[in-house]
Amino acid sequence: MTTKRILLIDDEDDIREIAQLSLEMIAxxxxxxxxxxxxxxxxxxxxxxxxxxxxxxMPELDGLATFQSLQADPITQEIPxxxxxxxxxxxxxxxxxxxxxxxxxxxxxxxLTLAEQVAKILGWNFT
Length: 127
Hints:
Elements: E1 5-9, H1 13-27, E2 30-34, H2 37-47, E3 51-55, H3 63-72, E4 81-85, H4 90-99, E5 103-106, H5 114-122
Parallel strand pairs: 1-2, 1-3, 3-4, 4-5
Helix pairs in contact: 2-3
């Protein structure tokens, strides 16, 4: 089984650090980090991760604009994206689903179950 490669795009240092530790230590996945939408797009193009965890609320280029840029690029459009968001209203969930987002993980997330949540959303085996 090959190691999964995850790109985490979030402007909050604490969130990136906690999520990276969780995904690497619990699941053994390789994690790439980006602190902005623009850096995330560039990293996705260069690294071709298996999935992207994307914060919705970011300065400059927010999560939805970042997602739309990823979808418009033939290099990154097939990479599944999971949004990290504090917004959990059903209208927002429907909007995100219609855009083609694979799933949502609400903030604050539980670090010990983050990898399991990601695997479940993407249909990956997780043991």
